[in-house]
Amino acid sequence: MNIIIAGDGEVGFYLARSLTDLDHNITVVDPHSELLKRLEKETDLLTIAGSSTSPQVLADANVGDCDLFVAVLHDESINLMSCVLAKRLKAKRTVARISNAELLAPKHRDMFREIGVDELVCPERIAAKEITNLLNNSVATEFFDFSGGLLTMYLIRLDSDSPVTGLSMQQLVQTYNTLQARIVAILRNGETIIPHAGLVFQPGDLAYLISRPNQLDTIREVLGKDNVPVRRAMIVGAGRIGRYAAMAQEGRIDITMIEESRQRCEEAAALLEKTLVINGDATDIELLKDEGLQDTDAFIAVTDSSETNILTCLHAKKLGVRRTIALVENTGFISLSQDIGIDTIINKKLITASYISRFIVRADAVRSKWLSGTNAELMEFNVGKWSPATRHLIRDLSLPKGATIGGIIRGNETILPTRDTQIKAKDKVVVFALPKVMEQVSKLFS
C-alpha cells in the first residue's frame, strides 16, 4: 500500500516508525523540518516538510496514488481539512484524528464521509472506554474483545505468590487442564517472549492470554488473583480522558476528581453531576490522603504530564490502592512503568495506531490491538476461501517465528487451537505477531 501520514510530532512519527517493518510505501508530511531530519536518520521513509492542507505539498507526496491517507496532527480542524483535500486529490481512503468525541455521532460521521473523511479516530474517547472496561474487570490490567466478546485477550501480571510461578508451560498445561485459555506471549523485563513448553514463569511476568469470556473466574483462581470490585475511584486530571471516564462511571461508583487548573475544574463540575471535583495539586500527597486515597479501590492518573501520572500512581500503590492506571505518553516510559508496579498503562499513540492498523494489513483484518510495552500486535483475520491457512493443519502452516495463533471463531463457536487444528474458510482467527512477521502472517489468511 501507498500510505501518507500527516502529523506534527510524536503520534505521526510513532505510527510511521511502527510501520517500517511492513511492506508498504510510507511518506510522512510534517511542518517541522527538524523533526523530519530526526526521522530520516532513524528510518528510510520518504519525508516532506510542509502543511498537509497545501494542495501542492499533497501533490508532491503523490496523494493521487495514495491508498491510505492518515492525518494525526494535534489540531482536529487541520486533520479534517487535510483529509477532505486528500480525498479530492484522489486518495482512496482517509482517516482523521479528532479530539471532540461529539463528532463520532452517526449523523456527523455520515456527513464527514460525504465530504471525504472516511474514518474518525478519537484517542481520548477510546482511552476513556479502556479505563471503564478496566474498572469493571478487577483481574486483568488490559483486555480486548474479539468478535463481539466470543474471545477475549487478557493481560495479567504474575505475582510472587502466584501458583504458576516456577512452573514451566508444559507443567501449567498438565497441572491445570481445566484452564481453557492460551498464553500467547510473555512480557519479561521489556522483552516479548513467545511461550514454548520449557518456558518457566517468573514473578513479575506479564502474561497475554486468549480465552472465552466465561473463563475469567478460572483464570483468576489458577493465577492466584483476588477479585477486588471497584466501589471508589480517584481520577487525577480533568481533561477529556478524565471527564469521559468519569461520565461513564459516575452513579455506578463513587468518584473523586483532582485537577490543578481551576478552569478545567469548572468545566468538569458543570458536566459531571455525581463526581466530587476538587481544585488541587495531585502531587500533594496530604491532599490525596485528606480526600480518602487510602480508602480508594482504583487510582487513575490522566494529567498532561506522564511523570506526574507515574509518580502519583506509585504513591497510591504505596498507600495500598489495589488498582492503578496511568496515562503515559512517552513510549520509552511504558516498560519502566510496568516494571515498577503500575497496573495499567494508557498511551494515545498506541490507541491511535491500533485503530489505524486495521486499514493497513493486506488480509481481511477486522480487529486489531497494539499492545502496551511491546511492539507486538493482536489481529483478528477473516479467513478467505482460497487462504493458504486452510490447506494444512496448524502444525504444518510454517507460521513464522514471532507469531502464534491464539484462538479461532467459527460461527458462534470458539476454538482454542492445538497443533492438530484445521483452519477453515470463513473462520475468524486471532493471531499474536511481532511487526517483522505481520506481513507473512497476513498473507496466510488472505
As a percent range, the share of strand residues is 25-35%
Largest sheet: 6 strands, parallel
Taking strands numbered 1, 2, ... along the chain, how are they ordered across the largest sheet? Answer: 3-2-1-4-5-6
Average of the residue pLDDT scores: 88
Number-wise, the strands total 22
The percentage helix is 25-40%
Query: What radius of gyration results from the CA coordinates?
Result: 22 Å
Q: N- to C-terminal separation? A: 15 Å
The SS-based structural class is alpha/beta
Poorly predicted runs: none
Question: Helix tally?
Answer: 15
Please explain how this structure is put together.
By secondary structure, this protein is an alpha/beta fold. The chain has 15 helices and 22 strands. A six-stranded parallel beta sheet has the order 3-2-1-4-5-6, sandwiched between helices. A six-stranded parallel beta sheet has the order 14-13-12-15-16-17, with helices on both faces. Strands 7-8-11-9-10 form a five-stranded antiparallel beta sheet. It is globular and about 60 Å long. The two termini are 15 Å apart. The relative contact order is 0.10.
Key traits:
alpha/beta, six-stranded parallel β-sheet
Strands, helices and their partners?
Layout lengths: L1 E5 L3 H9 L6 E6 L2 H10 L3 E4 L5 H6 L7 E4 L4 H13 L5 E4 L8 H10 L3 E3 L1 H13 L6 E5 L4 E7 L11 H7 L5 E8 L2 E3 L12 E6 L4 H8 L8 E5 L3 H10 L4 E6 L2 H10 L3 E5 L5 H6 L7 E4 L4 H13 L4 E5 L6 H6 L4 E3 L1 H10 L7 E6 L6 E6 L20 E8 L2 E3 L12 E6 L1 H11 L1
Parallel strand pairs: 1-2, 1-4, 2-3, 4-5, 5-6, 12-13, 12-15, 13-14, 15-16, 16-17
Antiparallel strand pairs: 7-8, 8-11, 9-10, 9-11, 18-19, 19-22, 20-21, 20-22
Helix pairs in contact: 1-14, 6-9, 6-14
